[in-house]
């Protein structure tokens, strides 16, 4: 079992912004909900662990859905302002990928049509609407609006 998968079983993830895969690879995501995100190159998670061994955070599921062959879990982390979304194979429960963003705010709603995840993250006074392609999550799109 990979490092990412073993921590996922304990509902934990690294706290660096990005996408984590069960192959122990990571794609750093740079940006913010206001400006959007840019994906970096895929790299081994071992580099993050080597730089700071203790950099894991606890995950708290707040919403879930199913669509196509996938189960989607979403919520918050132990860090204020951070959120996560995990895509799992519906039949096996195995992790497909895990997204963690330190400034997304907690995810409060999630739906999935089998191809794209639609999610909402919010904390007064902003709401973000996310579209994340399951097969290429690094191409995520976010739109932020102010809530009055």
Walk me through this protein's architecture.
- The chain contains 2 helices and 12 strands, in the order H-E-E-E-E-H-E-E-E-E-E-E-E-E.
- The protein has one domain.
- It is 9% helix and 58% strand.
- 32% of the residues are buried.
- An 8-stranded antiparallel β-sheet has the order 1-5-6-7-8-2-3-4. A 4-stranded antiparallel β-sheet has the order 9-10-11-12, with no helix packed on it.
- The protein starts with a helix and ends with a strand.
- It has 148 residues and is mainly beta.
List the helices and strands and how they pair.
Elements: H1 3-9, E1 12-14, E2 18-21, E3 25-32, E4 36-44, H2 46-51, E5 56-67, E6 70-77, E7 83-89, E8 95-101, E9 107-112, E10 116-123, E11 126-133, E12 141-146
Antiparallel strand pairs: 1-5, 2-3, 2-8, 3-4, 5-6, 6-7, 7-8, 9-10, 10-11, 11-12
Q: What percentage of the residues does DSSP assign to strands (E)?
A: over 45%
> Can you count the beta strands?
12
Tell me the span between the first and last alpha carbons: 46 Å
Helix content: under 10%
Strand order of the largest sheet: 1-5-6-7-8-2-3-4
Class derived from helix and strand content: mainly beta
**Biggest sheet architecture:** 8 strands, antiparallel
Count of distinct structural domains = 1
Count of DSSP H/I helices: 2
Radius of gyration: 14 Å
SSE topology string: HEEEEHEEEEEEEE
Q: What average pLDDT do the residues reach?
A: 95
